[in-house]
Amino acid sequence: MKRFTFFNITSLTLGFAFLYVPILILVVYSFNSSRLVTVWAGFSTKWYGELLQNQAFLDAAWVTLKVGIFSSCIATVLGTIAALVMVRAGKFWGRTLFSGMIYAPLVMPEVITGLSLLLLFISLGVERGVMTIVLAHATFSMCYVSVVVSSRLVSFDQSLEEAALDLGCTPFDAFKSVTLPIIAPAVISGWLLAFTLSLDDLVIASFTTGPSATTLPIKIYSAVRLGVSPEINALSTLLIGIVAIGVIIASLATKRAAVHRKRQEEAARQET
Amino acid sequence: MRRAFIISIPYLWLIALFLIPFGIVFKLALSDMAISIPPYTPTLDISGGWAGFKDFLSQLDMENFIWLKEDNLYWKAYLSSVQIAFVSTLLTLLIGFPMAYGMAQAPKEWQATLMMLIILPFWTSFLIRIYAWMGILSNEGFLNQFLLWTGIIGAPLQIINTNLAVYIGIIYTYLPFMVLPIYATLEKLDPSYLEAAEDLGCSRTQAFWAVTAPLSKPGVVAGCFLVFIPVVGEFVIPSLLGGSRTLMIGKVLWDEFFSNRDWPVASAVAVILLLILVIPIILFQKQQERAQEAET
Amino acid sequence: MSNDPFQPWEDPNATPLIRFENVTKRFGGFTAVDNLTLDIYEKEFFALLGASGCGKTTLMRMLAGFERPTEGRITLAGQDISSVPVNKRDINMMFQSYALFPHLTVADNIAFGLKRSDMPKSEIAGRVEEMLDMVQLSQFAKRKPHQISGGQRQRVALARSLAKNPKVLLLDEPLAALDKKLRQETQFELMDIQEKLGTTFMIVTHDQEEAMTVASRVAVMNAGQIKQIATPDAIYERPNSTYVADFIGEVNLITGKITSDTEKTCEIAWDGGMITAQPRTKLAKGTEVCFAVRPEKIAISAKKPNAANAIQGKVHDIAYLGNISTYYVEVAPGQIIKAQLANDRRLSRRSFTWEDPVWLSWTDTAGIVLTE
């Protein structure tokens, strides 16, 4: 039944070209030896060298990494709990408000979220820096985690948990030894999503940061506003490369796991 | 009891870091710049009790909103944000739907790969992807070089710093948000619906409009919300690709806050932006809840 | 009503409505339908019966137009329809999942095909009304499919596929989603509607009871081929092969060799002794045959009865099924023959119990001799 028609191939090809050609150009021209970024003057890796000399960028990268790891871990814990509440808790007082607070941040313009959090931190007299960015990022990315995890929980066969309880688990035990391992892939992808959202965020970080903490996006933004530069091309290529390698490793790992499982099933069938 | 405790953890977190901050924005929008220049101190004196609260209320006024109403920069910015968001949502739908449809129609063994290709740009930095377009759209950029080389144009086109560049940037960034929900609904669509439609006398095209199109509505609606709502408040794209003539409210808010340092006006801008978006946001939430209920 | 039985397939002058002529369908290396020829007559209620994967669904989908035959041709009323697209065929289908459009009301679902036919707009509402009446769902016209019960959905699907008054209605496992009680009621409803409209129905099912109940003729399919086409009673009482005998109902299959061949009866030697039977054709001495006899045709008694076939054994197992009991009797080491007794008294002690020695007996016409 399913097949590629001419129309489908055309729309997919054009669509994916639109998505990938700009990134490809960026990567290629990061190896350009000229400072004029749109004129090819030969292959060179010198911008990567200059990038690694640039202490400001390295500091910003370190801040971003710290913020990303802390905020995504908090977001994963909170988001998983929130997903459990959404899918399992049934009716409770203020449920509509709760689900509103889960879904609204997904679409809320970042300028509003950023501004409101900044005003909160100021009225509480909190000193702004890494800590406040972590709190801000954890708050909006927990909503993404909760959406990812709850979509897995919805399709989760609840009788597995009931079987665990029947076999003598306490509810917490059942969650820990049955539910959590099964929803683990969703929790992990939720964490990855939260981590990348944090690495990526410019607007909310700009609002909630103080003079002590400059994240990489803030640094890139201020550099980019002045125009295209080969160092930024090199930095972008590095970031894209890290992501691409991560994604490829992850997909290879899942593919190998699937192949492995299939083989085992096959072997088990032949044994009987 | 334990259930209440578990519910309360994310609940209280969201109230403290999502709901209360909005309350503060509302309050500040009604304050005056004079008393709220940074460093900002809370004017609500809780020790004053009810009288203190009334006193606090009496100090609030609509001055900032009147200011927004009178200066037509703001009105134009709101209008043009909504307009840009609306047009770019339509354009994204126009490009995204055929892609989602093509993905859903593709042979099963291809679908996972296509899905990954759509998601992959998500993982790469948004800022970098916008930046990539700066190099393409600038006057001596790759697009102009290419068009000059083919001879279609004689002199470089001014694309960057125009609304056109903003549209391209928005479509580029938000395309996956449109494709994914539409693909999800199309992929779940029972093929026997289409067979039934053909069996009852529809041609392929008629069956598409009579069955596929209406049944993909939840995905289309979700995709449009996911694009429209954040785009109205978009800041990075107009700031990097747009010009001085590109009016978008996210940028106005940013400038009001960081350049003019007028926090009450920035808050008022945010409140109105929120009021514009509150209906689509509630509709989006309802739609998400319905979709989740349909799955259980 | 005339007393002439409806059996156009016995009439050499009748022209069939549908003909499959040497139709083959391959999917890659897999042959789903293998050089199959089949005639179906007007007003028939034709059942395609077979296990899943036997090719029955593919056969039906080729008739509907969703699949094209790899070889051979299909004609409808004398016209080759192999190249006619689905939406131009005068054939409608009722889907296993019903495929009721979830975004349309019951009435709009029924009107869906009519709106795309040449029926004038003014008549559509009347026709929808008529179909709703037929399936007794007039009060649900404005509901959406998810607001009615499974049985009602099934009837909407039926009404929708009959609304355009097609020459042939195809039913793909139409009752599989219903529970047993409802299924039985619906079978009779289907038969009533079919008789009233006179439309040719073709049903695909894996449920033999369903096929036997509704159909005028049943085709048993296996591995892309038709094993037998016959009326339900002929399929049951005169199966043409061990596959069909075994597939339909319960049966004792006894393999043996012909030892004598007089004009009318033959003797079959097997591990448990000798069997006297009446073959359909004369069989040569030494032919390997299979003797098939239904358990309900076998009598059980304590004393040796006076019958063409009588054999002694020991009750090995008893399955009490309510209306009947099936006795598994061991007649020779490892050889078990099933016999059924109707439980026609409510309060009676079972005449035979485990390990009882019993006699099994049947007449020489009770079973059938199969060579395939």
Alpha plus pi helix count of chain B: 14
Determine the number of helices of chain A (DSSP H or I, runs of at least 4 residues).
11
Net shape of chain B: globular
Structural class designation of chain A: mainly alpha
**What is the assigned CATH homologous superfamily of chain B?**
MetI-like
Portion in beta strands of chain A: under 5%
The run of helices and strands of chain B is HHHHHHHHHHHHHH
The largest sheet of chain A is: none
Low-confidence stretches of chain A: none
Q: Could you say what the CATH architecture of the domain at 60-221 in chain A is?
A: Orthogonal Bundle
What's the count of strands of chain B? Answer: 0
Indicate the mean pLDDT of chain A. Answer: 86
Largest interface: A-B, 90 and 98 residues
Report the major sheet of chain B.
none
Structural class of chain B: mainly alpha
Overall helicity of chain B:
over 70%
Order of helices and strands of chain A: HHHHHHHHHHH
- Can you tell me the CATH superfamily of the domain at 60-221 in chain A? MetI-like
How does this model look, in words?
The complex is a heterotrimer of chains A (272), B (296) and C (372). Chain A has helices spanning 6-29, 46-53, 55-88, 95-107, 110-124, 130-154, 158-166, 171-200, 203-208, 216-224, 230-271. By secondary structure, chain A is mainly α. Chain A has a domain at 60-221: Orthogonal Bundle (MetI-like fold). Chain A is globular, with a radius of gyration of 23 Å. The model of chain A has no long low-confidence stretch (mean pLDDT 86). Chain B is an all-alpha fold. Chain B has a single domain, classed as MetI-like (MetI-like fold, Orthogonal Bundle). Chain B is built from 14 helices and no strands. In chain B, helix 1 (2-29) packs antiparallel against helix 14 (263-295) and helix 9 crosses helix 10 (204-215). The longest helix of chain B is centred in the N-terminal third of the chain and has 34 residues, at 72-105. Chain C folds into two domains: 8-245, Rossmann fold (3-Layer(aba) Sandwich); 251-370, OB fold (Dihydrolipoamide Acetyltransferase, E2P) (Beta Barrel). Helices cover 22% and strands 34% of the residues of chain C. Chain C contains eight helices and 20 strands. Chain C has helices spanning 56-64, 106-115, 121-134, 150-162, 180-197, 208-214, 232-237, 242-247, and strands at 18-27, 30-40, 45-49, 71-76, 79-80, 91-94, 168-172, 200-205, 217-222, 225-230, 252-261, 266-270, 273-277, 288-293, 299-301, 309-320, 324-332, 335-342, 357-362, 368-370. Chains in contact: A-B, B-C. At the A-B interface, helix 1, helix 3, helix 4, helix 5 and helix 6 of A face helix 1, helix 4, helix 5, helix 6 and helix 8 of B.
